[in-house]
Amino acid sequence: MKIRLGLLYGGKSAEHQVSLRTALAVINALNHEKFQIHPIYITVEGEWIKGPILNGSVENVKALQFSHTESISSAALAPTLFMTTNNESALDVIFPLLHGPNGEDGTVQGLLELLNLPYVGNGVLASSAGMDKVVMKNIFAQAGLPQVKYVWFIRSEWEAQQEEAYVKVEKEIGYPCFVKPANLGSSVGISKCMNREQLTEAFQEAFQFDRKVIIEEGVAAREIELGVLGNDSPECSVAGEIVPKVEFYDYKAKYEDGNTALIIPADIKEEEYKILHDMAIKAFKALDGSGLVRADFFLTKEGNAYINEVNTMPGFTPVSMFPLLWKHSGVDYPDLIERLVNLGMERHDEKQRIRYTF
Known about the structure:
Blueprint: E1 3-10, H1 16-29, E2 35-42, E3 48-50, H2 61-66, E4 71-73, E5 93-97, H3 107-114, H4 124-131, H5 133-142, E6 150-154, H6 155-160, H7 162-172, E7 177-181, E8 191-193, H8 196-206, E9 212-217, E10 222-230, E11 235-244, H9 251-255, E12 260-263, H10 270-286, E13 291-299, E14 305-311, H11 321-327, H12 333-351
Parallel strand pairs: 1-2, 1-5
Antiparallel strand pairs: 2-3, 3-4, 6-9, 7-8, 7-9, 10-11, 10-13, 11-12, 13-14
């Protein structure tokens, strides 16, 4: 019997197009002899559209957007897309290939938990905490993980006291600094600031994408990343390094211009890798992670390591850092997808041991 795999992609998020690229890659890499693929596309307006079962590869992203014709549903009726007319599960496991808010932040994970459906990746807590950079960094601080200095603001307090906000950044963080929306990935809305004028513009830019922004200290360091895979006994990939050819690794450098180099494995010392490995596992467990994360670090020339963030649903095309890290660790892309599906089903089975009566 084939595994009935539901693929969720698109999403009401600024990272919608990134999700489509991920879905296209996963569909074409899946073993169609093992999996029966049920595509479910979420539009940027939040409509849920279920497409026909896929028995082969898909040529392009547009096909993913426009081939869905079986049923159209609002988010409120989304659970019906996972069920048969007899109110039984139509799918064995769900793979949420969603990046950013309304997908990677615990919202969809909560829906799937209520439906008691197995799904790939992190649960509600790890997803929501990992999405919010402020909450994530506070958890890491509690766990004793070294980080660069940071402060944050919500939109209403910034609008009421803009001058005070800028002064606080300059006193506690200084320049250079990075201003980021707290709840977005893929470098959307991020700015590097060297002075007050740039800082003012950066706040305005970041608040277009979220009600909360975080400002982080800029450090002269290499950007090193590790992939983490597993549930209760996670393991790490080799390390990789991002070397931007531009000022910093922004959205265009990642997805449009190709203005970056990925070096795998990274040229770091064995003791440096051990430090990053242990920090990645500690961060994963601090968030109660499951399935996968990509852990991102800063490594200075003095050998000081700082955790920057973890991404609970990292870029997942064959040329994205997370799959490449595992390819260089001996796990090819199709095998990586299967391992993640199995980890999701394993975690679901483990949760069925929980008692809800006494």
